[in-house]
Amino acid sequence: MRIGIVPDLRSNAGGIYQYSITTLNALREWTTNGCSDQFVILTEEKEHSILQQFQKPTWAISASGPRSLKRTAKRILTRFGLDAISLDVLAKFRSASNQIHIDHVQSRPHDKQWLRSLGIELMLYPTPQTRAFEIGLPYIMAIHDLQHRLQPEFPEVAANGEWEYREYLFRHGVRNALMILTDSETGREDVLNFYGQYGIEPDRVKVLPFLPASYLPSEVSLEDRARVRNTYNLPERFLFYPAQFWPHKNHARIVAALGLLKQQKIEPAIVFCGSSDGSIRKKAYKEVMSSAEEHGVIKQILNLGYVPDQDMAGLYAEAAALVMPTFFGPTNIPVLEAWRFGCPVITSDIRGIREQVGDSAVLVDPKSVEAIADGIRKIWTDNEFCLELATKGRKRLSSYTPADFRKRLVDIIEEAKVYGTR
Question: What is the pTM of this model?
């Protein structure tokens, strides 16, 4: 069978970029070890370095759709660094303008014809996209969270037509899929609770847990640690939080917790990295920095902005702890990345994350500044506890390997192929 895959290869796309890379690498391993299927990577990011690994008879690389005015405009904008425009973002705009209705599916006959011309019979979407059901070919699609249903108070999942767009995407995405991928049992429960009424059977919602980003090395050399330290002029000891400045990432309460600790003569430094572009993130970033000034902790904060992939391992390895009191789950990749490099973890005591980490992290109430401060204090002042926590994290991480991910993914694809012939 010829299978199309649409990865998100924008390195600044966060978790969906990492998941896309992990999925591609798993499929590459499969095709190297006797898979009879052929794959077509559909992307406009044809210069991405990972694509050099797919120059094999079982792989092809193609544009993601037929040439059109929108697609040409996207390429031009991307060339000038404006990579936020995509066909799905344009779909969001139509939704916000009431030109798309939640219960009315748009049609993409030209895209379907394009994929058919490439001989594609099944599609795989590591990130949810409206094109999955608008094109009309059989597909498997990942759904990483349903926060617009769970926590619509956050503007990033509800404002400016975002709620309507997500509802359109997930309602029809679930209804028309051969298989849905979730990263946890909690995520699977959410899909069935919110969208089971639209006709998908429970056995077609599959759990495929996250792995740490596959482009990160297993170990970090002393030379690389030193390089990263010198590049970013890192504090001697620091906490770390790699996250874009969305309100749900909860940077504001971390800052307030630092203020509370400062009153107790405990003054840990923290390193942030992640985008603050766009109106919502820009506003959140300004509020966080203003709060840091008010709490007198601005000198304890180092914000690196976007950090390239090759530097992330060194940052994790050098950090005293990952501090991630996010409101969103159900699971998160930075926790896994921290465990890989022996970095203790402080994260949120919420459904989904609780199941992800077990006893291998300090769990805190993300709504409570006091709880976050207590978690930081414990990590910052108890080296023996940190070592114990890091050991637990590595052990938990080792219980689910890239081979496990690959086997689960292959089994799901094979089941979808059989289901699609019924």
Answer: 0.88
